[in-house]
């Protein structure tokens, strides 16, 4: 089934979820997974037989010691992905590529007999995720590319600028969000952004903060050497 033909009525109302702290999946983005725990290997096998869909959600930070001692709660917004490629390693791991389909709100966690968790998902708040490039023209592309260049230069890193220049705004913003080195809270903010333009602005703001911290630290080091 091509994603162009999918409506929210085609998406699974109940789905297995892979709780991954600090991981982010976005519509039409790619997330590699390295699956080795027996419960998630079982989930993978079950997903292959049922449309190849699974959800990516972050665990919610515990608010009490009792919560920290028990099973983690889940964040209320995640993203549905579809397994688009996989391979098995000699040691029994599965290396999987997951393609984002649509974000969802967690309605409730389901009682299960499976070793993995399952939730009831509501896609309606994010129905526009199924349409490629919604809001792409509103993205501050020049501002985003400028801050990416400065970040790479500050860290002595390079990038495939020909490939970046040829990327559409949606692919650029979402791929940068997925690979960004930010923490769980920042990744959740990127996931929950109301629009592609807002997601780009969050990326710009986060990166500007990191650059300012790096400049401040460098200034402190320079002063200590004087």
Brief rundown of the structure:
By secondary structure, the chain is α+β, with helices and mostly antiparallel strands.
Cα(first) to Cα(last) distance is 64 Å
Class from secondary-structure proportions: alpha+beta
Strand content: 15-25%
**Major beta sheet summary:** 5 strands, mixed, barrel
Per DSSP E runs of 2 or more residues, the count of β-strands stands at 6
DSSP helix count?
Answer: 7
Order of helices and strands: EEHEHEEEHHHHH
Report on the structure:
The chain contains seven helices and six strands. It is α+β, with helices and mostly antiparallel strands and 226 residues long. Strands 1-3-4-5-6 form a five-stranded mixed beta barrel. A hairpin with an 8-residue loop joins strand 5 (94-109) and strand 6 (118-122).
